[in-house]
Amino acid sequence: MDSATAVRDLLFTLLLKVGVASSIAALLARWNTFRRVLFTEERDPDQKLKLMLFMTPPLIVGVTLRLVGYPYQFADLSLEGAFLMGLLGGRVVGPIGGAIITIPALISHEWLAMPAASTAGLLGGLIRQAIPNKEDLWNFGPFTFLNIPKAVVRLLKKGQLSWEMAPLGVCVGLELGRVALRQATKPLWLFAIHPQWDWWLVLTVIATLMSVAAPLKIWNNTRIEMNLERHQQLLLKARMDALSRQINPHFLSTRSTLSPPSSASIPITPAASSSN
């Protein structure tokens, strides 16, 4: 890539790609049903289905826009979206969702689009299955690569794996594998923003990382907000219960003190009986 215009177009496309991924994540986070699915870490089949139904429509629209013409290349998030569905939904939701969102590409004779997206979803599901604590998935962020030296030292000294490095490695492998497949097969069989082995491919890999990490961070912030709201509600309920327990005995004792004595409890003096 020698032309300054081509470099500018690539940077602009990659920035738009990350922006589209973040926008879709923020839009989905506004739906209460989707928020409840995110908040529940151990999801049942019904919640996994809801997750897939929420994520697939905007991703299908993105693939369709990319097929419309060159200016909309940034809208294609097929691999990133399938990988996210696998991370959140498991090894069944990921491949199925990846196959669904690449249907427009398959219709356009991009024969490797569906297998590639399904593989990305399967890898995400396998990572989710392998991680002992599912909360570690939310530690993956846009700047996780800065923790690589720390993770290596931790692995060598303590023999402990930093599981947030697993999505990082898979994202790098997915982008490099996409470029390799694009060059090894016919160009029309698989889409890649920058299918060339040069230094600009580093920017493409970083954009892929950001397109996966940014939605995770947005959704994790949503989970934290919901957790705080839940704790505030529990705290308010506990305070009301404590106040109710303090008021009720005092109210009963005050009522028994102020209530007039009954006629049966009035003593009859001897003087009163003799006067009658």
Task: Describe this entry's structure for a reader.
- The protein is an all-alpha fold and 276 residues long.
- The chain has one domain (4-233).
- Helices cover 71% and strands 0% of the residues.
- It is built from eleven helices and no strands.
- It has helices at 4-28, 32-39, 45-68, 78-89, 93-101, 103-107, 113-130, 148-158, 165-184, 201-258, 270-275.
- Helix 5 (93-101) runs antiparallel to helix 7.
- It is globular and about 80 Å long.
- The model is unreliable at 271-276 (pLDDT under 50).
Keywords:
single chain
Provide a compact summary of the structure.
By secondary structure, the chain is mostly helical. The chain has helices at residues 4-28, 32-39, 45-68, 78-89, 93-101, 103-107, 113-130, 148-158, 165-184, 201-258, 270-275.
Sheet with the most strands? none
The low-confidence runs, each spanning 5 or more residues with pLDDT under 50, are 271-276
- Give the proportion of residues in helices: over 70%
Extended strand count? 0
**Number of H/I helices:** 11
Question: Can you give the mean pLDDT?
Answer: 85
